[in-house]
Queue: 2 jobs
Job 1
Amino acid sequence: MTEWLGLPPLAAAHGAQIDNLIGWIHVFMFILFVGWSAFFLFAIVRFRKARNPVADYKGVTSHRSTYMEIGVAVVEAVLLMGFAIPLWAARDNLPPAEHEALVVQVTGEQFAWNIHYPGADRTFGRTDIAKLDLQSNPLGLDRDDPAAKDDVTMVNQMYLPVNRPIIVRLRSKDVIHSFGVPEFRVKQDSVPGFTIPIWFTPNVTTADMRTRKGNPEFQYEIACAQLCGLGHARMRGVVTVQTAEEFQKWLDERAAEQAGDASDPFR
Ligand SMILES: [Cu+2]
């Protein structure tokens, strides 16, 4: 219905609502544009110098323009209260329960995305700044913590199961970054000192999207959407959406690989 907007293909459950809102905003703004342009042209012709050599000190006495202004304000109020606020409230106030969602911690840094899965125990292991090593342990994960034993960390590689709510806890190690995946219709700044949750449900696997687009190379991409420094342009991550079974297999393999080691994410 909103194909005419030319947005990236949709791959998240809530995305149709967002596209709808964007579509309606364009329709209303087009109507406003036509209305104001017509008024502008009318004013240029009607109040031209040849017809009005002397200024009119009385001005307009009819209330028509007031009613038109009220009409515009009503349309804007409908946009805000009828569409934007309910959509925002639904997105912001109703996250899925943590036990039915997959919780992933995503930490931005100049210039990479660190992805942290809590593993089977659903508990994120302790992190310690003393253990932090930019090459081998960029999150400073303490593998001696029992909760960290099954944790999986990745750099710029995010794997997600299809059709399951994902809660991303966004954090930053240095400056403000922004986690944006256009196909999921999500974009949120990560701010140092805060943990900001966002959630979405990917509903098209990478494999399906490749078939749909006829492009075997297609990848969902995490683009850093805030200018965060000289390397901003190469701050890209890849999201691979898999079936639940594929994802579980992937996670188990990574957990086995990384268990107990110095949490080298490149292994
Ligand atoms: Cu960035």
Job 2
Amino acid sequence: MPPGERSKSLARARSLYAAFAEAGVDRWTPVVILGGGVTGDLGAFAAATFLRGVPVVQVPTTVVAQVDSSVGGKTAVNFASAKNLIGTFHQPDLVLADPELLVTLSPRDFRSGMAEVVKIAVTLRPDLMERLEGDLAAVSRRDPALMTAAVRACVEAKAEVVGRDERDRDVRGILNYGHTLGHALEAASGGKIRHGEAVAMGMNGAAWLGESLGVTEPGFRDRQNRLLTGLGLKLTAPDADKRVVVRNLKLDKKVRNRKNRFVLTLQVGGASVWPHVPARLVREAVRLVTS
Ligand SMILES: NC(=O)c1ccc[n+]([C@@H]2O[C@H](COP(=O)([O-])OP(=O)(O)OC[C@H]3O[C@@H](n4cnc5c(N)ncnc54)[C@H](O)[C@@H]3O)[C@@H](O)[C@H]2O)c1
Ligand SMILES: [Zn+2]
């Protein structure tokens, strides 16, 4: 199928159903999904709904897919220009991640995926943070030993959180660190900013909010941002329209009673969902990440 978010559609799912039916897939036939997060979300959605669910084997081939989307059981297609509007929870039976597959990724896809690695490191894995900080050169040459360690740490951390809250009612929300402002910026850019690039900017904003509220340990933001820039990620999107970003924030999935909730870190390796962030500070954070 053609690469890109547009392939994550009900029309594509329908053509997979037709192929499954044609191939005689039964309830014991595993569907093996080889590709990035787009392929993974779509393939797993089709497998989760065909015959009320057939087994799934994920073979993720991008950084995002290896460290994030192939684990945790969220499946989705986009609908009416909204991302991931339709989906199920359906855990894979097996995930096979080979970090050597990452060497062919474009520099931009690789970098963008690394933002999600930093997300896991700063919220859940101080050891991974130190490892990345200690050997940025190995990251940039996509050293298989280092990438294996990074993928392993991220999968362990994510699986542990998902094991406590599969349906995303509370603690799984931590995995959304950087994503509140990130999604708002990503949508405002009309496809110009990649997901991971936007998440890096969102983490910058969230760390600023956390430090301003006295929740996040002073110095955290500097340390996080040094790692992000070391990986070649930008911290702000000067071209983004502030008003559109503010409008997009209202559509965040974590909004409850019309209030934005933010994931804030306490220190490296500790985070929680914060319900009380004053609107004035949120506007300042938007100004910061669009400056
Ligand atoms: N289910 C979840 O929990 C979850 C979590 C995070 C992201 N996602 C979803 O994942 C999607 C993004 O995934 P992505 O970042 O992997 O993007 P993607 O699947 O679009 O892949 C990015 C690009 O890399 C190419 N590619 C894939 N593997 C390659 C390889 N080994 N070498 C060279 N090129 C390769 C693809 O063809 C594509 O052009 C989004 O739709 C997002 O919503 C889902
Ligand atoms: Zn993400």
